[in-house]
Amino acid sequence: MYLLSFFYYLLYYLTLQLDLWKPLYLEDITSNSIVLVRIPFTALQSVKEELVHCSLSFDVLLDNITHVMGSAEKGRLRRKRSITDYDYTKYHSMEDIYNWINLMSEKHSDLLTQHYLGATYESRPMHYLKISQPSSNPKKIIWMDCGIHAREWIAPAFCQWFVKEIVQNHQKDARIKKILKNLDLYVLPVLNIDGYIYSWTTDRLWRKSRSSHQNGTCFGVDLNRNFNIKWCNLGSSKNCSDNSYCGMSPVSEPETKAVVDLVEKIKSDMICYLTIHSYSQYILTAYGYSRELPKSYNETIKVAQMAASELKKKHGTAYKVGSFANLLYEASGTSQDWVHDLGIDFSYTIELRDNGTYKFILPEDQIQPTCEETMAAVLTIIEYVNDKYFPNRAPTNAPMLYPAVLLLSTVVKLLV
Ligand code: 0X9
Ligand code: ZN
Ligand code: ZN
Question: H or E stretch including 118?
Fold first, then answer.
C-alpha cells in the first residue's frame, strides 16, 4: 500500500517525468514487488528521503545513466497519449489532468501557455493555463478557478471543457475572437489538488485540502474559508475536524497563498473572477460574509440573470441568481468576496448541477450537457465585461453604424 502511494507521490513530485522501467505502469505495482525507476539527479536527494520516510528499501542500480542511454526522456514520450482522444465527457484523475495540461500547452502553443502557480501542502505543483492571443493592445484579465472543493468533480471537468472550447473555436467563433482580442483568460483547472486526489483514492466525498492539524488528529482546511476577508466569522469553523474549518490564520494554506500571490500581482488588470463549484445550480454574487449587498449589485445581478437565461436555453436547466448570503447561508473567508473587495465587481461563484438528486456524485452522462450550458453562461458574463471595458473595440458596434449612415444619405438625396 505504501509502495503505490509512494510512486504516486513521486509522479507528482516530478511533474509526470517519472520514468518507470519495471513494471511499465503504476497500476501494476504491487506490494513486495521490485520496481525499477529512473530518478533525475536533481530530485535524487528528496526521493531518497521520502523512501526512508515510507520505510521502503532501495538500491541504486545504475548511477548516472546518461552514459548508458541516449535520451533519458524516451520512456516518458512513449507513454504520452494523444490529446485528440482525450475524453471530456469523463471525470479524470489528477494524473490525467497534469498530462492534459502538458499536452494542451504543447499542442496549442500559439494560444495556450502553462504557468507555475505554487505547490500544494503535499508538494504537488499547481499550474494554471493562460489563454492569450499575441497583441500589442493592452489587455484585461479574466480569472477562472475550478475545484476548490475536492468532491465537486464537475468543476475541474468544466475548466477543461472551457479550455478545449476556446482553443477549438478561437478562429471560427466571432464572440470568442472578439473576446480574445481584449482579454487574457487565466484558468486554474484544479485548485485543491491534494484534496482532489484524496477524493479519488480514499474518500469520494472529501471537501477540504489535506494539511495536517493538531498532531495529525485532523486534516484539511476548507480553502473557501481561508481567504483574508472576514476570516473565520459567520459560516466557518475553528474546529479542524469540521468541513468548514477556516485554518490557523487567513491564507495559512499554500494553495490559497499561491492564488492570492498571483491575484495580488494582476489585480489592476483583472476585471472578472469566476470560481466554479457544485452543486445547487446557482450563479452567486457577493457577499457571502454578510446579507448586505455591494454597490455593484444591481449590475452584477443583471449580468447573472442574463447568464442564467442563456444557460437555460441549452438544456432547460433552471438556475437561481442572487447574493450568496441571501440565497444560501452566510460564509466568510471565501475567494469570491476577497476578490470582490479588492475592487473586482464581477466576481461570481457558479454552483453547477445538480439540484439535489446526485449532489456531488453527478453521473458522467451529465458532464457534457452541464459543460455546454455552463459555457453559455460563462461566455455571457465574459462578453458583457469585455464590451463594458472595451466598448470601442467591440466589432458588433461597427455594423450598427451602417443604417444611420444609409439613412443620412437617403435624406440628403431627398433634399437635393
Ligand atoms: O460554501 C461554499 O464554499 C460554496 N458552496 S459549496 O456547496 N460548493 O461548498 C459557495 C461559496 C460562495 N461564496 C460567496 N458568495 N462569497
Ligand atoms: Zn490555434
Ligand atoms: Zn464548493
Answer: strand 112-119
Amino acid identity, residue 211? S
Distance of CA 267 to the CA centre of its chain: 18
Cα–Cα distance for residue pair 367/164, rounded to 1 Å? 14
> Which residues, by Cβ under 5 Å, contact ligand 3, an ion?
149, 152, 277
> Which pLDDT tens digit goes with each residue over 371-413?
999 999 999 999 999 999 999 765 544 444 433 333 333 333 3
Are the CB atoms for 127 and 117 separated by under 8 Å? yes
Cβ burial 60-89 (10 Å sphere, 16+ → b, else e): eeeeeeeeeeeeeeebbeeeeeeeeebebe
Pocket test for ligand 1, best of 153, 245, 351, 353 (most atoms within 8 A of CB): 351
Contact call for residues 323 and 293 (beta carbons, < 8 A): yes
Ligand 1 mutation target, pool 145, 223, 224, most atoms within 8 A of CB: 224
**Tens digit of pLDDT for each residue in 59-70?**
776 665 544 444
